[in-house]
Amino acid sequence: MTTIVVVGGTGQAGRAVVREAGARGHDVRVVSRRRPEDVAELGGAAHHAVDLLADDDAAVSAALTAAFDGADAVVDTSNGMTPGAQAVFTTGARRVAEAAGRAGVGRAVVLSIATVDQSEYPYYRAHAEQERVYAAGPAPVTVVRATQFHGFLDLFFGRGSRLGAWSRLGLLPYPRGCRFQTIDLRDVARALVDAAEGEDPLGVGPATGPSGAPTATVGGPQVLDARAMADAWRRARGSRRLPAGVPLPGQLGDFLRAGRNLVPDAAAGTTTYDQWLAGR
């Protein structure tokens, strides 16, 4: 039985990896800053509370080394959306990589974003730096780059989003002029556990990536216009809100409108956006 440690295992992607690894019969450990209140989220996995950005470098290193002791693979699904939290991709990644090396972990697997090196958007730049940190680290690493998850556009569609005021006007905002190749989170989890097992992620053979590390890119099965996705979302929910295209400013908007987020030759995911919506 393989022992897999999931760093960031209480987050969205991490929970999916914990479930997938457990379903395959692996011994799973979870590393996150806090233990979840609902221990059922851990799926029986052992939990190690480690704040990757704590000030005491020696204490963090010791805690990670203990969590990784005897492990066969470490899967890093850490995420940090705010500028301060994005240090998880640099300081946090360095600490994880070094601890994996000290513990003699056979391989590290890192979740990243498709074509992340082609954008100047700060969040993407931080992810690209994370790849470089692992590539320079002591443990063998595989980078798994994925396109946006199917739930990505809920950032626009959801009533609790920054554009939630539009919903009160009966409108359904979507990023105008953008296309997406979204992928099911379960497909991404399969790819990450494949890599942790030493197999090609979803059958995609890793090639040398921009960081110098073996890198596999997995995309969703379809390329869809954001307006079409808004229409599909409306149908699935029986919503009467009217789609309204809104401009997405800044470097991320430029990146998406140019289609640099798309990887049609890497359509490895199996669940379509419509299928995902129907299952929610």
Low-confidence stretches: none
Mean pLDDT, all residues: 93
The succession of helices and strands, N to C, reads EHEEHEHEHEHHEEHEEEHEHH
Counting helices, strands and paired strands, the structural category is: alpha/beta
Number of helices: 10
Distance between the termini: 32 Å
Q: What characteristic shape results from the CA principal axes?
A: globular
Main sheet record = 8 strands, mixed
Helix amount: 25-40%
Structural account:
The chain is α/β, with parallel strands linked by helices and 280 residues long. It is built from 10 helices and 12 strands. Strand 9 (207-208) and strand 10 (214-218) form a beta hairpin. Helix 2 packs across helix 3. The radius of gyration is 19 Å and the shape is globular. The two termini are 32 Å apart. The mean pLDDT is 93.
Q: Which descriptors apply to this entry?
A:
19% strand, 280 residues, two-stranded parallel ribbon, alpha/beta
Write the layout of secondary structure elements.
Layout: E1 3-7, H1 12-23, E2 27-32, E3 46-49, H2 57-68, E4 73-76, H3 91-102, E5 107-113, H4 122-135, E6 141-146, H5 154-157, H6 164-168, E7 171-175, E8 179-180, H7 185-196, E9 207-208, E10 214-218, E11 224-225, H8 226-237, E12 242-246, H9 250-257, H10 273-278
Parallel strand pairs: 1-2, 1-4, 2-3, 4-5, 5-6, 6-10, 7-12
Antiparallel strand pairs: 8-11, 9-10
Helix pairs in contact: 1-7, 2-3
